[in-house]
Amino acid sequence: MKKIGIYCVNYHSYDSLNDYLISIEKAAETAYNTADVFVYVVDNTIPTEKIEYCPNNFSLQVFSTGNNLGYFGAVRYAMQQVSPSEFDYIIISNVDVLMTEDTIIELSRTVIDPTIGWIAPALYSDKYEFDWNPQAITRYPEIKLRTMSLFFKFPFLLFLKQKLLHQYKRSQYLSGGKIYAAHGSFIILTRYFFNKCGIIHYPIFLYYEEIYLAEECRKHQLDVVYMPQIHVRDIGKVSTGKMPAKAYCKHNYEGVNYILSHYY
Fold first, then answer.
1. How far apart are CA 103 and CA 229, in angstroms?
2. Closest by alpha carbon to 94, among 179, 202, 19?
3. 2-32 burial, b for 16+ CB within 10 Å, e for fewer?
4. Ordered structural domains, the chain, with CATH
5. What crossing angle do the helices spanning 71-81 and 209-219 adopt, rounded to 10°?
6. Tens of pLDDT along 120-171?
7. pTM (2 decimals)?
């Protein structure tokens, strides 16, 4: 039996969280004889609402931080309570995603070697009608990241970034194999990642988590592998879609500059 730990972060998205837990329920039921599933919800909402979901096929624990710790800040908090080293696979996610019935069983049947730190599933966007993965096939050149920094420093340029990204994604196809980075809405890390890289420590509130993980894998000689036989649905920006443009640009600007200063 594989042990799968799911660390997910909620922020004012209780309906989406409930739908996500229902999808995990169905996926865990399908994989009942191949995987034990443990779900840890970190609730960044202030004030919190009671989460009353009672699972039948997985274990559920909720952490209320009393503060909005951001995405990986909340993940780090949960991992300090429950070590990821207990699990074969560790999923980090938002709650605006849905598992398919075969997500967990496909993951639990996947045989990997110790060189793999991060698995990218097929992450199909209901909103944009494409697979978000791979996020990037090759490492970003420094000039691209510095250009991204300018986009967020001067927000009137953002429409160019969004248009180019969507056009590129619609034309990008890959059958599977090694990539540079996967999308951050649904992240599957292996125990080998934590053996080499240690617990998540990304001090930026939000955004560019994917590049942080990709660079940590690169630094510790771990592969990131796209495995489209594992399927997940992305509902899309339930929490971050409500973020004011000024805050969106601020967090992105901080994230990209952290990556530039620490890895380039």
1. 9
2. 19
3. bebbbbbbbbbbbebbebbbebbbbbbbbbe
4. 2-263 (3.90.550.60)
5. 60
6. 999 999 888 889 999 999 999 999 999 889 888 887 666 665 555 544 454 4
7. 0.93
